[in-house]
Design goal:
Layout (H helix, E strand, L loop, with lengths): L14 E8 L5 H11 L3 E2 L11 E4 L2 E4 L10 E6 L3 H11 L9 E4 L4 E4 L5 E5 L11 E9 L4 H11 L4 E6 L2 E9 L2 E7 L11 E6 L2 H10 L3 E6 L2 E8 L6 E11 L28 H4 L8
Parallel strand pairs: 1-4, 5-8, 9-12, 13-16
Antiparallel strand pairs: 1-13, 2-3, 3-4, 5-9, 6-7, 7-8, 10-11, 11-12, 14-15, 15-16
Helix pairs in contact: 1-2
């Protein structure tokens, strides 16, 4: 019997890669202790190596952490990372260095919930088919948006950014799901009450139809910055039906010709230290997916 494949599941839309989440931090030392030592991520060794900003690698994505007034994403970031037990051990080990901050963590059923010293929320999942093929990276970024906005948000990404978008029911809420790459999404979850005031944090994505999206955004009067030949920004998500502003989050929009597109990123294994390092030994729990890839 010949296998039957659903080829549509391999379709990708106009967003081809999620780049980074940018939030301000008040103290680079505390930020490095949290993101590198406690979480176990890797500071990029090639770019932003000073104290005024740092780039933290998470697989193929990053956190950008400029030293400035702290900012807080209105939702949470879902990370994918092997070795949950080692993560909990690190969080316990460094917890004392975050006294007097908003740092917290708890071991939930399917993830570890973590709050950074300035209030940004993270959920850390072990690798699983839901995020395949990602075994280390950002599985999603979720925003909490006003009730009744999910359909309009999905329309905006589909019609203006040419993205693959849909609305689902999950946990009693309607969620606009915007595909960024295989196993990776932006999520906009309808939540009762008004979201906190927007404080300037931003996200960055790479686009397939970079010029076409710019034209559409320009026609709608939504371009907020013209940066370079390869980069522009907007921050208002509007319903294409009536122009109503649904949510604000700055998008840093990069082309696939941007010099940093597909730049290889260093990701260390935080479990392997100088005492147990062995030349040429690779920890398969960190460097490969624990499930079988489809034939």
């Amino acid at each position: 019997m010949k296998p039957v494949f659903d080829r549509a599941t391999e379709n990708l839309g106009g967003i081809v890669r999620f780049g980074h989440v940018n939030v301000g931090v008040a103290d680079p030392h505390i930020a490095q202790t949290f993101y590198v030592c406690a979480l176990g991520l890797t500071r990029d060794p090639y770019a932003q190596t000073g104290v005024d900003n740092m780039w933290i690698n998470v697989g193929a994505s990053q956190f950008h952490l400029p030293t400035e007034q702290p900012s807080v994403l209105r939702g949470h970031t879902g990370l994918v990372m092997p070795n949950r037990a080692a993560l909990l051990q690190r969080l316990n080990q460094f917890a004392g260095q975050f006294k007097g901050t908003r740092f917290a963590f708890s071991d939930a059923t399917d993830h570890v919930a973590v709050t950074c010293p300035w209030g940004n929320r993270l959920r850390v999942y072990e690798p699983q088919p839901r995020f395949a093929p990602i075994w280390l990276g950002m599985g999603y970024v979720e925003f909490e948006v006003p009730m009744g906005t999910a359909d309009g948000i999905a329309r905006f990404y589909e019609q203006v950014l040419f993205a693959s978008a849909r609305v689902i029911e999950e946990g009693g809420a309607r969620v606009a799901m915007i595909q960024c790459a295989q196993g990776q999404h932006l999520q906009f979850r309808e939540t009762a009450g008004e979201p906190p005031a927007y404080d300037g944090h931003h996200i960055q994505i790479y686009l397939l139809r970079f010029g076409d999206t710019h034209r559409k955004l320009s026609e709608m009067g939504l371009i907020s910055q013209e940066n370079t030949q390869y980069l522009y920004r907007f921050e208002k998500i509007v319903d294409p039906v009536d122009g109503r502003v649904l949510f604000k989050i700055e998008h840093e929009m990069r082309s696939m010709t941007h010099p940093l597109f597909l730049r290889p990123q260093v990701n260390r294994n935080p479990v392997m230290g100088q005492r147990d390092y062995q030349l040429g030994v690779i920890d398969d729990r960190w460097n490969g997916p624990p499930w079988k890839q489809p034939a």
